[in-house]
Amino acid sequence: MKEEIELHVAKTPEGKKTGRQIYNELGCPKKMLCPLVDHSELAFRILMKKYGCELSYTPMLNAKLFSKDAKYRQRHFGPLDGTHALDRPLIVQFCSNNVDELIKSCDYVKDQCDMIDLNLGCPQNIAKNGNYGSFLMENWTLISELISKMHEHGLNNTCKIRIFPEMDKSLEYAQMCVDAGAEWLGVHGRLREQRGQITGLADLDYIKFINENIKVKNNTDEKQVVISNGNLLYPGDIKRILDYTKCDAVMSGEGCLYNPGLYNFDKEKDDVNTAEGLDNIKDKVFPRVDKIMKEYFDIVLSVKKESPASLKSFKSHIFKLLRPFFEREIDLRNEFGPLNKIFEEDKYDFNAFIKKVEKRIEERLDEFEDVITFNEKDSNDEVKYFNVPFYRCQPYFRVIDGVKNNARYDIMKRDLEDKEGFLHSLKNKKQKIKDDY
Ligand SMILES: Cc1cc2nc3c(=O)[nH]c(=O)nc-3n(C[C@H](O)[C@H](O)[C@H](O)COP(=O)(O)O)c2cc1C
Predict the structure, then answer these.
(1) Which residue's C-alpha comes closest to atom 22 of ligand 1?
(2) Does residue 416 register a pLDDT over 80?
(3) Which of 26, 175, 314, 348 is the most core-located residue (most Cβ within 10 A)?
(4) Mean pLDDT of 257-263
């Protein structure tokens, strides 16, 4: 027998805009940057906006700490966040299991952003221990209370969910969030168990099913705003995913981290589906790693005073941006690894390192042709894979070597032939698991 649960349904304050109105006012953004702990900080958001991203999320902020600790607030959401010319539209994301802490935190940031998101997707142990993120998926009463209080407080609010193994339950869950007052819904098409080594593919069928069947709160004619999350590797995937799921927008995490050029094309003019088309716009959509590294570093320096990036996050970005390059140019990777004084400008000039990378690429240009080609061997009807020179940013195909429990598992295409990369990934398994959200 179905367990009776008490659900909160928000009363909409008078004059409050609907999700669709907010979406239209924000210019109908289609290409969004995911919330990313340690990675969607101000500097990276600015870089992404320069490269065609239309809306960004902050990293997840912990409402318990944010509501109480001024230092935490200062460190994670400074005065420049949301006020920099290139930092809007912006969604601030909180994790929480406590209404008072959540509302207090929202009040601190509501004038510096366009919407506030509740994190219902974090699958990490830290979320398990703190009882938030995807570990609230069993507590619909609490979720509906958190969302409805945000809504009733007059905030423009969204939530980002994961899916259940059952499609119907996933829809019911999404509907509960919307009825509680979520004006937008981000759907990450993976189960809570799909993380680390068994991340696998997101299931777009679930996202499509939720999007096609969900009813907007109060059941008006308006369509619920739904954002699809997962499986974005190449620019052409954006249209493919939007056409398939019929969602309003896509958001990407790892796709952008490894290649900030993912969104950087003109949908009317540029051909992003063929190797030839991509080759014509390769500087935009697969930027050279030395150039993007310089651009990112310049932004980091420009916002350093008000919103300093942590060394950990800076290094993690560089490792991701340069992943294919570092896998071949091991000496430069080894040189970058121990660099810990990057932000102490007088002691270490990071521009000297950038110059070394640039020089190395120039030397390699004779040897490795600068063309994008279509990789027929790895293709199937739905997904196209491309060969991109190692000195250009490109998607990262994860190495997965295990299946656990009942997690749905679709083998993702991986570059296992790249033995060096494979071994490197395995060696860094520990680090990777820690990095994986
Ligand atoms: C480094 C990293 C940090 C993440 N941090 C967050 C976060 O703060 N909040 C959140 O909701 N999801 C977070 N995620 C999950 C992403 O937002 C996204 O849902 C997930 O990576 C799947 O999308 P992708 O396949 O485009 O990467 C994180 C993912 C990564 C890789």
Answers:
(1) 230
(2) no
(3) 314
(4) 98
Report whether residue 397 contacts ligand 1, using a CB cutoff of 6 Å: no
Q: N- to C-terminal Cα distance for the chain? A: 35
Q: Kindly state whether residue 203 falls inside one of the protein's structural domains.
A: yes
β-partners of residue 92 are: 116
Instruction: Specify if 46 maps to a domain.
Output: yes
Position 131 in a domain: yes
Q: What is the mean pLDDT of residues 5-28?
A: 93
Q: Are strands 249-252 and 373-374 parallel, antiparallel or unpaired?
A: unpaired
Q: If pLDDT is split at 50, 70 and 90, which confidence band does 398 have?
A: low
Is the previous residue joined to 89 through a cis bond, with omega within 30 degrees of 0?
A: yes
Check pocket membership of 437 for ligand 1, CB cut-off 6 A. yes
Model pLDDT, residue 380: 63
Q: How many distinct structural domains can be found in the chain? A: 1
Distance 407 CA to ligand 1 centre (A): 18
Q: Could you list the residue range(s) of the whole structural domain that residue 36 is in?
A: 21-278
Report whether residue 208 contacts ligand 1, using a CB cutoff of 6 Å: no
In this prediction, residues 84-91 reach a mean pLDDT of 97
ipTM of the complex: 0.99
Q: Among the options 122, 177, 247, 393, which is catalytic?
A: 122
Higher-pLDDT residue of 385 and 150 is: 150
Task: Specify the pLDDT at position 422.
Answer: 31
The question of whether 177 is a catalytic residue gets the answer: no
- CATH code of the domain covering residue 130: 3.20.20.70
Query: Which residue has better confidence, 105 or 195?
Result: 105
Domain-embedded: residue 217: yes
